[in-house]
């Protein structure tokens, strides 16, 4: 009974995601899972995955957030779009410039937060106003469009079917899905063998098999739907690489564990010899660079740079983190959890859009989901400490 409770608690958001997906599939008469809509789920929410991966590191340090990322997305996109469209700069030079600008913004905000110890809320709130205003200055209140085709090919196109499948089915996409499942199974088996070799406690084999089967089925179903549309979106590759890197950093590296340590107990972490100021600085520097990447993705998806781009992006990223299991107090949270949170938000947005729900009511639902996730976190901690 106790094990069942632990499993239910561990996979609560996965079950919620499954139920919400089934609900919207039912009320939309299956439209939710049509290939174009599955593709839109990725294309429209790519920025959430990218920003949430960086936002998690900030939240881990003690529940801190960055309110400026939406404005940074707009500002970086405005600079890149202006240079590419109005000045005709090489796209790779523009990409480098956008990354450097993001890094400078992160260093600026990280300095005040980490070394002067101004509260992150205040620094990033100021940044939200500053960079939104600068975006309008750069764009002069106008929309810059369209983006060069070779730039769109990097962020807003599809991987061609190099295996030469049928006309309406991208065989390459399906093969990638199958390969992904095989790699996942190999990693699970290798991890279990290492635990046996080192004498670590093992998870029940039944649970491992069931979890592996569910994940593989989800991967195959997802890639099958994409294969029925246009194949693998290039933006999915960017999202996959970024979330994969950050999943490895947070779970397998010493530097990644520092963020958890600072959020768990900053004083103890400092006494153990870890430079906590540097941890804060890296968290905000990192997030601003990811905001620059999100800016690249955004102007490619919109095929333009405009003064309103990135509005409320910071709230979507924060919501994905908390819904995905990150603690409002810091020290708890994972990249897989963040991915689940981002997908859940995307499914809710897409499902309500297909149903024709008013945009204002969509915001109400998202707010209630976020509140429920945080309440769950607080109540769980309270019960654990009893």
From TrEMBL:
PANTHER family recorded: ABC TRANSPORTER PERMEASE PROTEIN YPHD-RELATED-RELATED, XYLOSE TRANSPORT SYSTEM PERMEASE PROTEIN XYLH
GO cellular component terms listed in the entry, alphabetical order: plasma membrane
TM helices/strands, residue ranges: 40-60, 67-84, 90-114, 121-139, 169-187, 208-226, 232-249, 279-302, 322-352
Protein name stated in the entry: Xylose transport system permease protein XylH
Record NCBIfam families: GguB
Lineage start: Bacteria, Bacillati, Bacillota, Clostridia, Lachnospirales
Organism annotation: Anaerocolumna sedimenticola
Record's keyword annotation contains Iron-sulfur: no
Alphabetized GO MF terms: transmembrane transporter activity
Entry function: Part of the binding-protein-dependent transport system for D-xylose. Probably responsible for the translocation of the substrate across the membrane.
Entry keywords, A to Z: Cell inner membrane, Cell membrane, Membrane, Sugar transport, Transmembrane, Transmembrane helix, Transport
Domain of life of the source: Bacteria
Localization: Cell membrane
């Amino acid at each position: 009974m106790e094990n069942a409770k632990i499993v239910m608690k561990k996979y609560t958001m996965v079950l919620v995601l499954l139920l919400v997906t089934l609900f919207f599939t039912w009320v939309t008469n299956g439209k939710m899972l049509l290939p174009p809509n599955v593709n839109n789920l990725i294309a429209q929410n790519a920025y959430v995955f990218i920003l949430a991966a960086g936002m998690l590191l900030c939240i881990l340090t003690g529940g801190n957030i960055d309110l400026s990322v939406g404005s940074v997305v707009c500002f970086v996109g405005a600079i890149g779009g202006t240079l590419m469209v109005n000045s005709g700069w090489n796209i790779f030079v523009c990409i480098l410039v956008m990354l450097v600008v993001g890094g400078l913004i992160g260093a600026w905000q990280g300095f005040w937060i980490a070394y002067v110890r101004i509260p992150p809320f205040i620094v990033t709130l100021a940044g939200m106003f500053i960079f939104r205003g600068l975006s309008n200055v750069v764009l002069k209140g106008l929309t810059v469009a369209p983006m060069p085709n070779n730039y769109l090919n990097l962020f807003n196109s599809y991987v061609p079917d190099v295996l030469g499948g049928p006309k309406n089915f991208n065989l390459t996409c399906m093969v990638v899905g199958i390969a992904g499942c095989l790699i996942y199974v190999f990693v699970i088996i290798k991890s279990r063998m290492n635990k046996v070799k080192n004498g670590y406690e093992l998870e029940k084999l039944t649970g491992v098999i069931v979890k592996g089967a569910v994940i593989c089925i989800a991967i195959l179903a997802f890639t099958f739907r994409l294969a029925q549309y246009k194949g693998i979106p290039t933006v999915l590759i960017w999202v996959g690489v970024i979330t994969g890197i950050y999943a490895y950093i947070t779970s397998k590296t010493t530097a990644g564990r520092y963020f958890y340590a600072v959020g768990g107990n900053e004083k103890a972490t400092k006494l153990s010899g870890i430079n906590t100021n540097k941890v804060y600085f890296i968290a905000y520097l990192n997030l601003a660079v990811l905001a620059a990447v999100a800016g690249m993705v955004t102007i490619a998806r919109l095929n333009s740079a405009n003064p309103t781009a990135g509005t409320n992006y910071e709230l979507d990223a924060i919501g994905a983190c908390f819904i995905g299991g990150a603690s409002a107090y810091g020290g708890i949270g994972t990249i897989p959890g963040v991915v689940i949170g981002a997908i859940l938000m995307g499914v809710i947005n897409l499902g309500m859009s297909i149903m024709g729900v008013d945009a204002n009511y969509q915001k109400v639902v998202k707010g209630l989901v976020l509140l429920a996730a945080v309440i769950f976190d607080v109540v769980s901690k309270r019960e654990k400490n009893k």
